[in-house]
Design brief:
single chain, alpha+beta, Ubiquitin-like (UB roll), 5-stranded mixed β-sheet, 4-stranded antiparallel β-sheet, 31% helix
């Protein structure tokens, strides 16, 4: 057995054990992810850094899963040096696994500030531009969300065309059709739930009533397009092909 000091507290610990093992046996918590009692230590995650005092008075951070206890070793598991090391180590891991819940909750448990998780939006504004310039529903804009600038939706303005989701390069915007209802969401936030209409040709649910109304209004000056608004793209194609064949047949 040997004497060490951990966080100012003198303790007698087993020879040949690591600082992490000694800390665990004495109820002192040190964050770690790559340590497993059945395996040899590797020090890969670097979370278990602790401050070691040297006789010269210099303080250094060393990995407690690898370093073994020594007679009269002075260890600090919480200090400014340790906090800076931990923050760097946590953020390094989060760069590789940004959404890892276990890493984030461990950082929270030890009060380590870490980069917030990515929200999945790259701020290209394609969705806002297409909704304004082409669809002309103006349902999306940049706004504040949790203190950050993000795509937000105006209340009740989405007509459920799905164009923004088709253009979104990261799948941040999603369209789901289920049981006659189309749901448009910005990540988890639902921005529109609209009833789908059936195609008069094949009976398939193909577009929202609001979108069809919007198209009908914007094409008022082109009445010849009206008959197409109640058909899905497949039926329109079928109709056009049929008209072409009939035209050619008449010419003969
Ligand atoms: S689905 Fe809604 S938000 Fe997206 S382009 Fe169409 S109207 Fe705009």
């Amino acid at each position: 057995m040997i004497d060490i000091t951990m966080n100012g507290q003198k303790m007698v610990v087993r020879k040949n054990q690591t600082i992490l093992q000694a800390a665990r046996e004495n109820g002192i918590k040190i964050p770690h992810l790559c340590f497993h009692p059945a395996l040899k230590p590797s020090g890969a995650c670097k979370l278990c850094g602790v401050e070691i005092g040297s006789p010269s008075g210099r303080k250094v951070v060393m990995l407690s899963c690898v370093l073994k206890v020594k007679e009269n070793l002075e260890i600090q598991t919480e200090s400014a040096l340790v906090s800076a090391h931990r923050e760097k180590a946590f953020n390094r891991l989060l760069q590789m696994a940004p959404d890892a819940f276990r890493i984030r909750s461990l950082a929270k448990e030890f009060g380590v500030p870490v980069t917030p998780p990515s929200d999945g939006c790259i701020r290209c504004r394609l969705c806002i531009r297409v909704c304004n310039e082409i669809v002309k529903a103006s349902a999306l804009k940049m706004g504040k969300h949790d203190g950050k600038s993000l795509v937000v939706a105006g209340k009740g303005q989405c007509i459920g065309c799905g164009t923004c989701a088709n253009l979104c390069p990261t799948n941040f915007i999603q369209v789901k059709d289920k049981e006659g209802v189309r749901t448009i969401s910005l990540k988890e936030e639902v921005i529109g739930q609209l009833l789908l209409e059936r195609c008069e040709g094949c009976g398939k649910m193909y577009a929202t009533a609001n979108f069809l109304k919007h198209v009908a209004q914007s094409t008022l000056s082109h009445p010849d397009t009206k008959e197409h608004h109640c058909l899905c793209p497949s039926c329109i194609k079928l109709m056009s092909n049929r008209a072409l064949t009939e035209g050619e047949h008449l010419k003969k």
